[in-house]
Amino acid sequence: MRPHVELIQENDYVWHGAELVGGEGRASERRLSVDEEDGSCSLRVDFHTDWGRGPGIHHANTEYHVLEGSMTYNGKEIGKGGYVYAPKGVPTEAITFSEGTRLLHYREYGDAGFDAVESTRATRWKGAREDVIVIDTEAMTWDAVPNPGPMPGLFIKYLHVDPETGFYTRLVHAQEGWTDHRLAHHPCYEEAYTVQGHMEYNFGTLDLGTYFFRPARVKHGHFTSLEGGATWLLRSDGELFNWYTQSEWVRWGGEAINYGPGEGRMRWSTSSHDLGAGAPGRSDRDLADLRASVRYQREQGEIDEEYVQHGTGTDKSLLAIAKAVDAARLQGGHGDDDHEHEHAPVNADWGADPRSLEHPDERTDDLAYVWGAGRNWRKGDPIPAPILSSRPVRSRSAGRWNGDGM
C-alpha cells in the first residue's frame, strides 16, 4: 500500500540513479511514490545520455509518457506526448530515449525487473492477457468526460483501460472555470501529475510538476480551475465512481495530562472549522466559481447545498455535540458529576454507522489491515464511508492543507 502523498512539487524530491535494468546509458529518477510491499512506483525520469535496451519482458505493468524529448519503440519515434504501455509478462520490442528526454514512468504490481529475450516471439508469462499499447497522445483529440461533475468543461484522452480490473490511465483537462464545490471519495486509488495549468483545491495548488497519490476513500475536493485550465496524467486502479458529501466537519480533542500551563489535566479541542478560520482561505474568484457551480447544479434539477467556506458561519461540530448533550439529558443524564454511579451510554443519533456502509468482507479479506485499500465496486453495492488522512506526506514548497473541507 502506498502512503498518501498530497500535494508535492517534484522539485522537492531528491534525484536517484534510475533503476532501469538491462539498459545502456545514464538516467536519474525522482521517486514520486513507492509501494514497498510489491515494488509499484511512480517516477519522474531524466535521461542524461541516449539510453536504450533491447526486447524483453517487464516484471510489472509498465508505462512511459514523454514530457519532453523523444522515444523510439520498435523503430517508430514519438516526441512529446509519446506513450507506451508494456504489460507484465508480455514480450516487448526494443525501446530507446534520446538525451535530454524527460518522462513519467510507472511500474504497477511488480518491481523493476526486466528479462532480455531474443525477440517478441518469446513465450508470454502464464496469465498475461493484455497487449502492448503505443500512442502519440499529441495526435489524439479530447473527448468530453461523460460525467464531468456539477459543471461541463472536463475533457479526457484514454490511454490504457484494463477491461477486467477497470485500471485506467488517462490525460484529463479541466478548462478555465471548471469547478466542483463538493468533496468526493472513490473506491479506488487516484494519482495525478500536473503537466499544464493551475487548479486550486483543499490540499493545495495543482500546477506544473505537482503530484499526488491518494488511497481509496480519502476525501478531497472543492476544485476551481484557474487561468488556462489544468491538465494531468491521471491513473486509478479501478473504475472511478464519485461519492459526494457536503457541509463536512470533524472535531477531535482529549484530556492533556502532562502538558499545558500549570498542573493537572487540561482539556483541548479543535475542529476542521478552526483550521479553515486560520487558513488563507479562498480568493473572491474561487468563492464566486464555487457558488456558480451550486447554481448550475440546481438549474439541472439536482438537490444541492449552498457552498459555505470552512471557518465561516456556524461550526457544525458544535451543533452535533449540543444535540448529543440534549440526548444524554433526555436519557437520564444530568450536570452534577459529584457522585459514584455510572451513566448509561448515550445513544445519540449520528446518522449511519460507517461500518454499515462497508462491504461485509472488507474487515476479513487480505487488505483488511489498511482502510485506504481499494475494492472492486459495482452499482448497487454499499457505498463505503470516507476515511480521513489529515496529515498526508506533502511538499515543503507547494503542499498545504488549508482546512477547506476534509
TrEMBL record:
Residues 334-344 have a biased composition (Basic and acidic residues). This is DUF4437 domain-containing protein. It holds the Pfam family DUF4437. SUPFAM superfamilies: RmlC-like cupins. It comes from the Bacteria. Residues 331-361, 380-406 are annotated as: Disordered. InterPro entries: DUF4437, RmlC-like_jellyroll, RmlC_Cupin_sf.
